[in-house]
Amino acid sequence: MDTAGIDRIIDKYQGEAASLIQILLEIQHETGWLPREVLARVSEKLQIPLSKVQQTATFYKAFSVVPKGRHTIHICKGTACHVRGAQRIIDKVQELTGIKPGETDLDMHFSLETVNCLGRCALGPVIEIDGETHAGASPDKVMETLKKYE
């Protein structure tokens, strides 16, 4: 994202430092992640220390300071999904993609994340890819599900 795009988002919030989280969310929505150069520009425009911007970007799980794949896979590990076999789903996704939770494949195609709950307990185990819910996941269905995103 160029500086003009960053500035446009910051200006939308009248350059208010109190809007830091919302500004970072919008920038990340457009870029997919928060590169150091972006954080530096936000720091400069909001007139807050870069260390505070970096601290915010690394504290919240919603933010990523490393590049993400085109498709983000979230696998629920909450109690209901766990007892229905979430770990087997995680293992199968790892086997098929070659990545562990928190990683992105070398082709920048998939990023894998585990979450404590997706709020769809009755449908578990649940996989969410790019915001689309895939309920009743099983190791046998994982390959078929991932093929939809190739």
Give the proportion of residues in helices: 40-55%
Q: Give the helices and strands as they follow along the chain.
A: HHHHEHHEEEH
Q: In DSSP terms, counting alpha (H) and pi (I) runs of 4 or more, how many helices?
A: 7
Enumerate the spans where pLDDT stays under 50 for 5 or more consecutive residues. Answer: none
Tell me the β content: 5-15%
Structural class: alpha+beta
Q: In one word, what is the shape?
A: elongated
Biggest sheet, in brief?
Answer: 4 strands, mixed
The strand count comes to 4
Strand order of the largest sheet: 2-1-3-4
CA-atom Rg in angstroms: 18 Å
Describe this structure in words.
The chain has 150 residues and is of the alpha+beta class. 46% of the residues lie in helices and 12% in strands. It has helices at residues 3-12, 20-31, 36-46, 50-59, 79-83, 86-97, 139-147, and strands spanning 71-76, 110-115, 127-129, 132-134. Strand 3 (127-129) and strand 4 (132-134) form a beta hairpin. The longest helix has 12 residues, at 20-31. The two termini are 25 Å apart. The model has no long low-confidence stretch (mean pLDDT 93).
Write the layout of secondary structure elements.
Layout: H1 3-12, H2 20-31, H3 36-46, H4 50-59, E1 71-76, H5 79-83, H6 86-97, E2 110-115, E3 127-129, E4 132-134, H7 139-147
Parallel strand pairs: 1-2
Antiparallel strand pairs: 1-3, 3-4
Short description:
The chain is α+β, with helices and mostly antiparallel strands. It has seven helices and four strands; from the N terminus they run ααααβααβββα. α3 packs across α4 (50-59).
